[in-house]
Amino acid sequence: MTAPFGxxxxxxxxxxxxxxxxxxxxxxxxxxxxxxDDVAGLERFARTVVEALAGEVAVLKPQSAFFERFGSRxxxxxxxxxxxxxxxxxxxxxxxxRGDIGSTMAAYADAFxxxxxxxxxxxxxxxxxxxxxxxxxxxxxxxxxxAGVFALALxxxxxxxxxxxxxxxxxxxxxxSVLRHLAxxxxxxxPLGSFxxxxxxxxxxxDADLDINGxxxxxxxxxxxxxxxxxxxxxxxxxxxxxxxxSRDILKLGPSVGALREGAARFxxxxxxxxx
Length: 276
Fold this sequence. Notes:
Elements: H1 5-16, E1 20-23, H2 27-32, H3 39-53, E2 59-62, H4 64-68, H5 71-87, E3 91-98, H6 102-113, E4 123-126, H7 136-145, E5 148-154, H8 161-164, H9 174-185, E6 195-199, E7 216-219, H10 230-235, E8 242-246, H11 248-251, H12 257-275
Parallel strand pairs: 1-2, 1-8, 2-3, 3-4, 4-5, 5-6, 6-7, 7-8
């Protein structure tokens, strides 16, 4: 039985540094690398990122949509990238943001969290906006396989405010309700729970209790405007559990393997200095 995701993530962050790098092969980035917007370009991009970073950083986060747009051949590239990244020692967080009910949610859980699946990942992102309870198949599958789940809580896109800051009959915001559910899922976990929240690093301020005993995935570092220095100010006592997510500011340094590694190392150093 593999160690729980939270245990493995804590070890990876402590040894390799607190950094998650996205694998986001959108068309403009493929062009910037001198690659075609086709399956061959997709494969070259993904394999280069994995070669450069899977042995260096704690977490790689492929964005499923950028592979899905090429159909079955794109999914085949994604399967290959996941397997090679995990084999090289990186934890793989599948950025799929799935959310549904009943047997459909169970099928998504099978796709990303069942060890027999070719897309099996160390963790997956999910959307809780059909009700947190609708995600139960994902949590159950993750517990069974030693994987993790990251639920959207406080995203930095302006459209998210109308849902995430709405208040229920108990007076809690939707985001705070999600965070409380995650804290319950992580109860008694040590050294870190396996069930995390996605909390944007560009929010400026957070009026919520982030003490969930689990990881906080923080997108928005780099090109979107946030810096490692913002982490302790924004996340406060929870800063040690923050996993900064950087994509464009590192990926733009490719296709040079050396430049990608140097960029990742710089972000790790800056984050460690900021958090202390």
